Amino acid sequence: MRLLLNWVLSALAVWIVSQVVPGIHVNGAITALLAALVIGFVNATVGLIIKVVTFPLTLLTLGLFWFVINAAMLKFASVLVPGFEVRGFGAAFLGAIVLSIVSAVLHWLIMPRKAQQ
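The chain above was modelled as a monomer; its predicted structure follows.
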């Protein structure tokens, strides 16, 4: 149940980003759900490999290069999902930042962590 809620919140975050960031477009709820699934899969596979390989560059830029990697992963996901469009790297870069923030806020609001005892 928690996994399903996590997926729906991620899809909601993708839809919110499409409303806020110019250059990102989602055709509907099904497309947002599919985009959230693909973004998660791409980040867990290809994104993880790229982050490990480029770790020295990430250290050199004090972590800022991860924004570039996340933007590339968002753009790559848009190529795989019909109806999910990211126009240009600038939109992908801003979209990746906004998606991270919106997703974190939604998860914090809906699924708060249990208090440690």
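The chain has a mean pLDDT of 90.
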